[in-house]
Amino acid sequence: MDLFDNKRFVAHLDLDTFFVSVERLKNSKFIGKPLIVGGMSDRAVVSACSYETRKFGVHSAMPMKLAMRLCPHAIVVRGDMDSYSYYSRVVTDVVRETVPVMEKASVDEFYVDLTGVDRFFGCSQFMIELKNRIKKESGLPISYALASNKLISKVATDDAKPDGRKEILHGLEKDYLAPLKIQRMPGIGEKTSVLLLQMGVSTIKILSEIPVPMMHNLLGKNGIDLSRKANGIDPSPIISYSEQKSIGTEETFMQDTIDMQFLNSELIRMTERLTFQLRKQERLTGCVTVKLRYANFDTVSKQMVISYTASDTVLLKKVKELFAKLYDKRMLVRLIGVRFSHLVQGSQQINLFEDTEEAVRLYQAMDAMRARYGDEAIKRAISVKEREKRERSPHF
Predict the structure, then answer these.
(1) Which residues are involved in binding Mg(2+) (predicted)?
(2) pLDDT class of 5 with cuts at 50, 70, 90
């Protein structure tokens, strides 16, 4: 055994067409059929689609009306985030109980660090057994790739799908990436892709041959990062997963109050600010906590495990429900707080199964204004009205 061998072994696991797979698990009649998960109206958007629909050009975030025009024989199922959250947690528990270090990258993908496992069990066999256990305990297909770092394992997982596995041996990272199109490289978006293609850079091999100073002049720090990745180098660590990750805020009032309209407006203001932070960080929350402190300093809190979301509408409803359960003494309130925990990476759009394309754009426009002008740039009228009313009245 070479005690100085510092090779890393990193695997990326991805639940294949996760929403579609869950729907097929619930209803076997969908197996092998072209399936679209999303809102039921023509004005809704596609949240997920099966491989059978993709060959017709259907993809996620596409307007439902266009998707049905491309694949008119597709079956459309309304998304059920409760089910997706449940199965995500089932798989999370299996992975967490099995591997030394795990990072939950989103509701349906994970990174695991198996460095050291190779000395005892062998990483290849370990991952085969993990894949089989996930399939047995969840019923869901999952693909994975094993490599020396996060970048290679993530890229290679796409080649392992559906329901497959792939291993990139140490030292072959650059050779593996070389023939791939630049669009396969994480970190290359549409604009960067267009720029590179205009320069004649169509493959990762060509990208890897561009001098670093030129990449820096072209794309700044991102250019240096892309140059390193194009050569198969990615030192980024596995960020150990913890359900305790959270964001929150609380407000202690200048005067204790029993005014329900004001308390309601404060809950709205806090929740909207936190949901914006979630979407800005591309995260979803799976648990909501509301805290309440009375004038006599008695402090109480309640929490609720929920389906993963970053939707204002959903979270406002949950926050109000928790507050209604907490506020039972009819006493003056000194402080209220809201906290979101059990955070995972993900886009809020996967929750908006009933939202129209226009509604999604509205959310995006509001978030863009907040990102440019600050968290308080746009908010619901009630939260502004009640706060101004309180500030104007010295006897409030």
Answers:
(1) 14, 108
(2) low
Structure tokens at 17: 């067409």
> For residue 35, what are the β-bridge partners?
75
Binding site feature residues for Mg(2+): 14, 108
pLDDT score for 9: 95
User: Where is the binding site, in residues?
Assistant: 14, 108
Nearest residue to 363 via CA among 378, 343, 383, 382? 378
Q: Which residue is it, tokens 């025009």? A: 69
388 is known as an active-site residue: no
Task: Give residue for tokens 């039921």.
Answer: 40
How far lies 20's CA from each of 243, 280, 361, in Å?
26, 27, 24
Q: Look up residue 201 and give its two tokens.
A: 């850079």
Strands in 84-187 per DSSP E: 101-106, 109-113, 142-147, 165-167
Residue 167: DSSP 8-state? E
The total number of residues written for the chain in this structure: 396
Residue 337, pLDDT > 70, answer yes
Mean of all residue pLDDT scores within the chain: 87
Model confidence, pTM: 0.76
